[in-house]
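Morning F.,

Quick status update on the modeling queue. The single chain you submitted on Monday has been processed. Sequence for confirmation:
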Amino acid sequence: MRLHTRIVEVIEENPDVKTFRFRFGKVVQAGQFCMVWDGNGEEVPMSFSYTAGLKGITVRRVGHTTALLHNLKEGATLRLRGPLGNGYPVQSMKYLIVAGGTGIASLAPAAEAIAHAGGEFVFLAGFRTAREIFFIDRLKKLGTVLLATDDGTAGYRGVVTGLVEKVLAEQEFDACLTCGPEIMMQRVSALTGDIPTYCSLERLMKCGIGICDACSVGGLQVCKDGPVFRAEMLRNLGVWA
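Structure tokens below.
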């Protein structure tokens, strides 16, 4: 069932990314997503970027549908279905969290949930350049945050997996959460080895509830069985080498 809610706040995170905050009475786990209607007949999956208090989604403008969403203003109606899928496992232990680009939108509420549960985290965030960075001040209030940029304009110079190698050589972790480009997540899972590593997959979705099978991977459906999967499972299913 599609719910209608009013947008309470619109935040421009960077020139291509906006966050939309809204009231939503349902309980949402970090890592879950919703199907958002663009008002023109299309629905797209969006991870919740805020899961406590005012909920939120964070949208990067990459095509026609996301451009329509970027045009929405405070007070406009947002139409969505959710929450859908599963979430990240959150316990009172030490996590390595690795985000690539807008993957930070899915992982920021997970970091908040970990801190609320009494756990701790080291959050590694990778962006192409400093002007794309967002959510960092929000996360620094709760734990250790380290940045990587491809061009070296902020933090470590290079891809975030290079920073993962450095941190793993210096610290031990109980679990790892990661979201971003799939090639990045595969590399993260290779580096973490025996550390339980949970990855949030992105696939084309139409229904969001396991009917259309558009998002099938290895016999599972990302919308229903995921989007969060243990890396070991993805390798065993042949999704990843």
